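[09:14] KT: can someone run the structure on this one? pasting the chain below
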Amino acid sequence: MIPDYTESNFAGIEHGDGISVIRFHAPWCEPCRRSEHQFDEAVTQFPATVRAGKVNVMQAPVLAAKYAVWGLPVILIFKDGQEFARISGPQPASVFTQGVHNALL
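[09:31] RB: done, structure tokens below
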């Protein structure tokens, strides 16, 4: 199961080492619902050292504003606590796995 993050538990991503892949979404967002399985599929292909998570922007509006998440869905790839890459809109699983691969280089 992919964990959910909010303002109260996101510090581990922002101050952590390694690679984290976080999906920003909202329950009312149709493109988010349609593309959720692509993200879930991609997560199964990530190396075990890569953390994955989800942020519901309705429950974490401060995080959405902090990372300038205005359109949904948005995937942020963090490397050692810093934003490394941003993937906007519904994408195939291969786009997420390629982003993680690039971060691991």
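[09:33] KT: thanks! The chain has a mean pLDDT of 96.
[09:34] RB: yep, looked fine to me
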